[in-house]
Give the backbone structure.
Amino acid sequence: MYYLGLDVGSSSVKAALVEAKTGKSILSVHEPENEMSINSLKNDWAEQDPNNWWKYSCLAIKRVCKQSNINPKKIISIGISYQMHGLVIVDKNGETVRDSIIWCDSRSVEIGNEAYIKLGKDKCMSHLLNSPGNFTASKLKWVKENEPGVYEKIYKYMLPGDFIAYKLSGEINTTRNGLSEGIIWDYKNNETANWLLDFYGIDSNLTPDIVDNFTKQGATNLKAAEETGLNIGVPITYRAGDQPNNALALNVFDNGEVAASGGTSGVIYSITNNINSNEPSRINHFAHVNYSDDNRSVGKLLCINGAGIQYRWLRNHSIGKSYEKMNEAASNIAVGSEGISVIPFGNGAERMLNNKNIGTHICNINLNQHSHGHLYRSSLEGIAFSFMYGMEILKNDNAQINVIRAGNDNLFRSKIFANTVSTLIGHEIEIYNTTGAFGAARASGIINNDLDSFRKKITMNDHVMTFLPLKNKSEYEDAYLRWKEDLQGILKNK
C-alpha cells in the first residue's frame, strides 16, 4: 500500500509516492514538463487558473503511478502541500469566479498596511502575530473593493490546497494552519479572526468549515476517481502550505527545531510555543502543521532574498567553473577569506533589513592578494553570515534554536557554508534527502497527531549526515563580526 503526496506550486505540480509500511520514497514527478504560466495583467500582479492546478494534479498522479508501475488502487491516503497565501474563490456551484491571486502578487500591499495602522500594532501582533500585509485576507478585500460583481458571486474563499482537496472530495473546508497563512487566524482567542474580516467588510460566512490535520478531511468522490485513476473513498488526511510542509518533511515539529533551505533565496523556519512577537514585517508567523488546542505550535518564518543567487552569479561569470570546482578552490582559503566580506543582498529588497535594497557588495578586496578562491569562499561565508544574522533576529524575537535541519540540496551541499552556520550558531545541522511532495505523502499516514512513527521513518529513510560545530569558533566569530561591521556601514548610507 502507498501514500500519495501532492505539492502544488506556482511553477508545477509534483506528485510523489511513499511505501506505507516502511516510509520509503518511491518516485516523484512533476507536471507540466515546462513551467506553468503566470498571468500578469498589470505590474506586480500575478494570477493563475486554479483549474490548471487540478489538471496537472491529475496528470501527475497518473504518471507517477505509471512510471513506478504501481496500481493507483493501492493508494490509501493523500496529503497536500501548496503555494501559500493565494486566494481562490468559488460560487455556489463550486466553480471558480476568477483566477487565483497568488502568493507573489502585491496588489493588496497598501490595503494590509492601512489595516495595520488603523487596527494598531498591539491588536495585530497580540492576535494575528503579523501585519495583515499582502496576504489572503487583504487580497479578498481587494476583490471586494475593485470587483464588486465578482465578490457578490462568492460562496467560499479558499487557499490553493483547499481547492485541490475540494476537487478531490467535493467538500469545501480549510485548516487552522491554512487560515493562519492567510492571516485570518486569531492566536490569542484561538479562533478565526472574524474581527479582521469585519474590518474589511467581508462576510465571515465566506470562511469554509475548519478541519483538523492528521484526520480525515474528505475523501475522493466518483468524479475525482474518474479523473485521477484513484479509488473512490481515498481519505485526504493532511494539507499545509509549502514552507510549513517543508519543515514537516525535515522532521521539524517541536520548540527549538529549525528548518532551513538555501536555494536562490533562503528560508529559516523556527518552531516556537511562544506566541509573543514584536516583528510585524521582518518575520511572519504561521500555525504549524501540528497546531492544535493543546499544542500552540507556531512557525516563525524569516526569508533571505539574496542567498544562493550570489553563488550562482559567480559561477555564471567564472568561465568553465562548476560548483564543485568553486567549492574546491574555496576550501584552500582560510576562514574569514583573508579580510574579504561579501554582502550578498543583490536580489531585491530584504525584509530582514527593513525592506532596504542595498545590493551586493564585495568589501576589502586586495587586487594583489586575493584570488578567485577568496571570492568563492567569501561568498559562501557571506551567505552563511546572512543566515546567522537572520537567526539572531529570530532569537531576539523569542525563538529558541536547538537544532537545524535542511535538505540535501543547493547551499547545504557546501561544507564551508554548513560548517560556518553550525559553528556560529553552536548547534548541529542535520541534512535530509527529501522533498515537499514526499513529506506530504508521508504526513498523510499520520493518524490522530501520532508523530512518533512518522519521525522514525524520516530518520531511517532520509537522514544523510550531520554537521557538528567546529572547535575553532573564534575564527568564525571574528569574521562574522567584521562582516556585520561592513553591513552596518552600508546600511547607514541607505
Summary: Residues 124 and 300 are 16 Å apart (CA to CA). The longest strand covers residues 75-82.
